[in-house]
Amino acid sequence: MANPEQTLLESKLAALKQSYLATLESELLALYNDLSEAIAHNQEEPAALAHTLEDIHRRLHKIAGSAGTFGFQAVGQQVRTLEVTLQSWLEASHVLPPFTKLSAFVQQLWELQREVSPGALPQAHTLAEESAITSVTIIWLVEEDVELGNRILEQLNNFSYTVRLFTTVKDANHAASKEIPDVVIIDAGMEFANLSVACPLLFISDQDTFEARVRAAQLNAHGYFLKPLNIPQLVNRLEQLLHDREAPPARILIVDDDYQLAMYYQLVLEAAGMEVRILEQPEHIIEQMSVFRPELLLMDVHMPAYNGPDLAAVVRQYEEWGSLPIVFLSAETDLNKQIDALSHGADDFLTKPISAAQLVASVRARVARARTLSALLNKDSLTGLLKHASIKSATINEVARAYRQNYPVIVAMMDIDNFKTVNDTHGHAVGDVVIASVATLLRQRLRQTDLIGRYGGEEFLMVLPHCGAQDGWKRLENIREYFSRLRFRQGDIEFSCTLSAGMICSTDVSEEKRENLLVAADEALYRAKRGGRNKVCY
Amino acid sequence: MSSLKRILYVEDDPDIQTVAKLALEVVGGFTVKICSSGEQALDEAEEFLPDLILLDVMMPGMDGPSTLKALRQLSSLQHVPVAFMTAKVQPHEIDQLTALGAESVIAKPFDPMVLSSQVLSIWEQSRG
Description:
The complex is a heterodimer. Helices cover 53% and strands 15% of the residues of chain A. By secondary structure, chain A is α/β, with parallel strands linked by helices. By secondary structure, chain B is α/β, with parallel strands linked by helices. Helices cover 44% and strands 19% of the residues of chain B. The chains are: A alpha/beta, B alpha/beta.
């Protein structure tokens, strides 16, 4: 099969595929733009809107017929679904679909575009994908001071982001027609009100005035950083923002004896993208919670067997559920009874009947708050990784689960080589940048299901579930190799660092000795250090 | 003695033009001429003397069916087998297209690695 002609054909097809992807990307974006604009401007003119819809239908049809030829079968099929939907609207006489349906349609187009766009984050990380390419995060920096801009750009490059610098808002707006960044960082001293790029914004400023902060807040800023910039802090926020987009759905447990009503809440919350379970037997609440691990408990006050406040008090007896948000939902309007419920460990009281939008908003806000709080409690402020105690207990739990469910797990320790020299030569601020960049690299190169913690000053502990020895070694080796090639820049000085790592796989240790995994990983790390550093030992 | 050598493909999408030409020439070993519109096909088809014609259905200007009708008016092309290429693959849509006098319908998206054998089997079917 591998004759020269075949190879030539394959390489030509690959090149065509590549150029088609570019076409596909810009066409999907153009479709999205055209349709949003038509909807926004032609509400009053159904004829003009219908005309645009016909045009869009034709273009979707074209993609549906071509994407598969170039190897984008899944995209082709999704476009096909959109095409069929649109066709059914167009065929259904001259009555145009309602606005809500149109906007849902536009949303689907947008998501499809994001999926195709190379800047988009992959949906799921698998071992196979990981070894090939890691996603690229595109950051735009809008800063009129070129020198400062370049300095920030250099620093962010240390964290393997792709950064583009713009010196005017106009340039950024112009570029936004071709590419959409993941995050824009903009100097608050600029005319930022005109910026029209559809992604999260971070502000940098040398002015800490209330007015400037309000202006930023009005533009939906996700952060406000003062110059001179603390880069690890900025990167932390960036990672948080990027991570939020792929944050797992909120898990909600509903306790209500009215099963119909519970089902209704479940539907409403699930439609908002949450994962919802209904507790059927109050006696099993703790068991169910330890399996499902809810992030919020939504509970009726009056139930025949056990009432809500009693159940809440039981939940609070367990230390691990001490900070779980508990929200009561009830037709109770008696203020005294509400206060009584709150004193039994509930966090809030929602009065029935409640609108779907209000329920979703209340639950979402509380889960977000709880997540922030738990991050503050459990995560290291420099790296955003789990703290020593948290990673240690998480490791024990994960290892126990792996033996119980009989899958392989890797425990690994990693340490920055000669870190003291970095601190002594370049100062602690630079040392912090190096530590934070290891953390970012680990997050970027490991899966979401992997546990990563800052175990000590420049030491990291990782747990990789469902991962065999060979895979795990390759993964660590890949991180080590990549890090050794990173160049850190500080003013005129340029330097690089290396990492050493040691690992052990659960398949090499019997279950009775499972608590030795950490020690074994530490010993392997020691061997790597003794063996000359910049290596991964197993 | 005749075998399938010359294929005329009428298609407006430049991406598809390129990949189809590559697929038919390299994989199938055919001689391929591309026309970007029905109008162009009417002007240039007779000179090319195709053994078989592939027609995209949805094109701006003359669409596939009207191109077929017009090509059939040209005496040298009256009996050349024609296949439609379309992303519409509902059974009734296929029946409508074949009723217009096409030999067959090839579904889009097509696989560039198998397009040639699809075309060849349509050709054999038209012979036999």
